[in-house]
Amino acid sequence: MSKGVTKQSEDFSKWYTDVVRQAKLADYGPVKGTMVIRPYGYAIWENFQGILNQMFKDTGHVNAYFPMFIPEHFLKKEAEHVEGFAPEVAVVTHAGGKELEEPLIVRPTSETIIWHMYKKWISSYRDLPLLINQWANVVRWEMRTRLFLRTTEFLWQEGHTAHATAEEAEEETLRMLEVYKRFAEDYMAMPVITGQKTESEKFAGAVNTYSIEAMMRDTKALQAGTSHYLGQNFAKAFEVTFQNKDNKEELVYATSWGVSTRLVGGLIMCHGDDKGLILPPRVAPHQVVIIPIFRNDTKDLVMGKVAELVGELKAVSVRVHVDDDEKASPGFKFNEWEMCGVPMRVEIGPKDIEKGQAVVVIRHSGVKHFVALTELATFLAGQVVTVQDELFQRALDFREANTHTVENWEEFKETLETKGGFIKAFWNGSAEVEAKIKEETKATIRCIPFDRPGVIGKCVYTGDEGSQQVLFARAY
Amino acid sequence: MSKGVTKQSEDFSKWYTDVVRQAKLADYGPVKGTMVIRPYGYAIWENFQGILNQMFKDTGHVNAYFPMFIPEHFLKKEAEHVEGFAPEVAVVTHAGGKELEEPLIVRPTSETIIWHMYKKWISSYRDLPLLINQWANVVRWEMRTRLFLRTTEFLWQEGHTAHATAEEAEEETLRMLEVYKRFAEDYMAMPVITGQKTESEKFAGAVNTYSIEAMMRDTKALQAGTSHYLGQNFAKAFEVTFQNKDNKEELVYATSWGVSTRLVGGLIMCHGDDKGLILPPRVAPHQVVIIPIFRNDTKDLVMGKVAELVGELKAVSVRVHVDDDEKASPGFKFNEWEMCGVPMRVEIGPKDIEKGQAVVVIRHSGVKHFVALTELATFLAGQVVTVQDELFQRALDFREANTHTVENWEEFKETLETKGGFIKAFWNGSAEVEAKIKEETKATIRCIPFDRPGVIGKCVYTGDEGSQQVLFARAY
Fold first, then answer.
1. CB distance B74–A30 less than 8 Å?
2. What is the pLDDT of residue A346?
3. I need a labelling partner for B393 at 20 to 30 A (CA). Which of A207, A273, B205, B291 fits?
4. Which residues in chain B are contacts of A71 at CB distance < 8 A?
5. pLDDT digits (tens, 9 = 90+) for B338-353
């Protein structure tokens, strides 16, 4: 851990891998493209789960669990869906020592099996809305993988809801997008832009896909969560109808929405620096690490004070960890916990105690505070809020500084090459133009943001009048 | 839901399936042997998870996540392990549109992939003990399946720990068995017998397997959790050594332990009756259901009082649900919530309010209490404890009443045929005898209980002197 990491400016991608490995967040699994989530990385994911789960329950959802194996023919029932997912599925052909009559798909997402079940559970408007979420593993056989960001197996949650009207389903789609935005911004301190995906970027089987898009510290974009309005597509494919209030049979309206362990990758790349990880306090496994400094003759004094402090911090709900490993030096520990991104470090030794104080170092700013021991717990509890706010503001400032509005194609290309970042530009709505821009620059339309100027303008590629402003970026 | 269920005495197996389906705990999935865990059943599992997770953390464990796909050759590295699991694995042969070079096993348990990783993480005694738990889905292709009890895919937790000494690993094995016993008894109100498995019943790859065994209401046994001392078997297979304090290379010692969604089946069969499910309060999604009774002109009065009560119950941490569905009659709701096993029902109407009281009905005993509204929250909070204790005592009494000590083979067969239950008898330790008893009676040795008489006696089958007492039963 003391080795340090590659500088971000030198090789951002290598920096990322170094941090993930050295902070012991994850490791490669034995099968290409798979990931082992190590305890420290998993603790972050557990914090995400706990918060999101509460947010889902607060918006009326319940959890359930559906089987991971999907009969192959299910996938084919929704034409766009199979086209999108068939190329990347893993297939079970043998089980229990025999070849199966029908191969089984390992779920890449669960719309098909869930709507197969919803057919059995829904018959009347009284059964609606059905608001179910599932925490599960899914498999998508990707060629180019990267720890957390894109792995063949990943963990996620997938919400699948059924509604009596299109309006209600559309409302739900946007409500959950808003939940994701709140989670990203209020907990991960990661500002996001919400908007609609273009036709070519939408989910296979959706009517509309919406996403939250964040900027990483290399100014590239990360799609951090999606929410889909599925219309009646899956209800049609799986023949899910209900008797409405007028006693008429009607197809059910659907949504689905998900975020995954990819968010952990987003967290790392949104806040980290050349010393390693930086974790926002609200999602950090440890908010404070205490490094006691002592020799044999001062151990009791220092550890006694530390025990007192731990008690005070727990009383104000601050998550604290004491690193009392006597085999490592304080200097080694400083580096180690900076690598691991713990938001605040407390150093406390006999001289500090004599002066009635301790040293507090803030991870992201490096600012050092000398704080009276009597004030320490209150100070740290306050810093949980302050650090969280500062990290959000820093990420927001960074995004604003790296978002550029361009008028024409030359400017587009030059900005992307020399500055990178998010590019706001007008686009004529043509999928062909979208594809050409991608081909020429590797930039994609991240979304058609909800928040955009009321004006229309000239398409950055074709010059067509009457085009709408969209957000371009190179993305993960 | 108002249909009622088959009587236990008529057909216990059908009773079980009726309850699972009608209380909406689970449903069959489209692939044979798979199960959909519906929200009410999943809420029970979530309660289990929350409690167990805390117990694991309190005993020093952390969570992590390992990939579900295991290279086929891993399984073969431990001879007994592959023999035990190979016949029931599901195999992925194709992924991403291509045939894989090496087939992948969908984990039936994760020892092999975890010990492959432990080799990378362990090098010195300083890295030990390593105390990791994982919450995951696993797949075992079983021929005869039953909802919750035996499904091809199930959810579980699997602890995998690594230690520097055999003693420490053995201690850990028994510590976790004790955690399972405490969980079963204190939370599920399900008394269990702890003991060691025989050679033929132990985990494939273990040195010793220990289990908790519970009695269901048909007097059959359910193995509800297992804890394995693996010795150095997996360390040897995966070459996991560490430098001990004397600077010598040594193989690591291991344990693994797990409980699964099978526990939900155990809960149902340990407490349920002819009216349906009975849930112990500590694991019940709703501890209290309130059924308001009103007409249009008394709705405000009643619902106002109900809202007050809900506030009071939440303040004393009682999980309460209000069934205010105006389309169903109170009588229908009584049946429905009895079917769903909610421990306490509160009925409250305008006449009750006039008298300043409410009716409380205890699910398992049918006892009716008329309780002053001012005392209601306190009364119900008290009943959470009382009902929990009563259910445990009832299950314990039932087990004791159905446990028989027999002296000879005739008595063994007759007791099993006429009374069923647990049978305590002496056994000479021969696997052949064990197999013959199983063949002739379908009874297996559930365990060699920790708590058994200090005497030895005559083998029930062969009459051999010097045999030890063990626990026989027919089992799920």
1. yes
2. 98
3. B291
4. 30-31
5. 999 999 999 999 999 9
Name all domains of chain B by residue range, CATH numbers in brackets: 12-271 (3.30.930.10), 281-390 (3.40.50.800), 403-473 (3.30.110.30)
Per CB-CB distance under 8 Å, the chain A contacts of B137 are: 68, 136-137
The reply to whether residue B31 touches residue A117, judged by beta carbons under 8 angstroms, is no
Distance from CA of B87 to the nearest CA of A (A): 5
Mutation for B interface: A45, A66, A148, A160, most B CBs within 10 A:
A66
User: Confidence class of residue B453 from pLDDT cuts 50, 70 and 90?
Assistant: confident
B76 pLDDT exceeds 60? Answer: yes
pLDDT on residue B275:
97
Which tokens in the block code for residue B357?
């009281």
Query: In Å, how far is B104's CA from the nearest CA of chain A?
Result: 9
pTM of the model: 0.97
Beta carbons of A36 and B96 less than 8 Å apart = no
Contact B92 A92 (CB under 8 A): yes
> Does pLDDT of B1 surpass 60?
no
Of B63, B70, B91, the CB nearest to A93: B91
Q: In this complex, do B39 and A63 lie within 8 Å of one another by their Cβ atoms?
A: yes
Asked whether residue B2 carries a pLDDT value surpassing 80, the answer given is no
Rounded mean pLDDT, A192-217: 97
Interface of A with B in 39-98 (CB under 8 A): 39, 42-43, 45-46, 62-71, 74, 86-97
How confident is the model over B9-23, as pLDDT tens digits?
A: 999 999 999 999 999
ipTM for the complex shown: 0.96
- List pLDDT tens digits, range A255-308: 999 999 999 999 999 999 999 999 999 999 999 999 999 999 999 999 999 999
Taking the Cβ of residue B136 and every Cβ of chain A, the question of whether any pair is shorter than 8 Å is answered with: yes
- Name which of A24, A48, A65 to mutate to probe chain B: the one with the most chain B Cβ atoms within 10 A of its Cβ: A65
User: Which of B85, B88, B91, B326 best tests the A interface by mutation, with the highest count of A CBs <10 A?
Assistant: B91
Instruction: Give the pLDDT band (50/70/90) at residue A132.
Output: very high
Please tell me if residue A245 touches chain B, with a CB cutoff of 8 Å.
no
pLDDT at B102 over 70: yes
Residues 150-209 of A with CB under 8 A from B: 152-153, 155
Give CA separation, B382 vs B282, B284, B440, in Å: 12, 15, 49
Distances (CA, A) of B183 to B147, B160, B388, B397: 22, 19, 13, 19
β-sheet bridge partners, residue A229: A208, A255
* B45 chain-A contacts, CB cut-off 8 A: 65
B108, pLDDT greater than 80: yes
Work out the pLDDT band at B79, boundaries 50, 70, 90.
confident
Confidence of residue B3 (pLDDT cuts 50, 70, 90): low
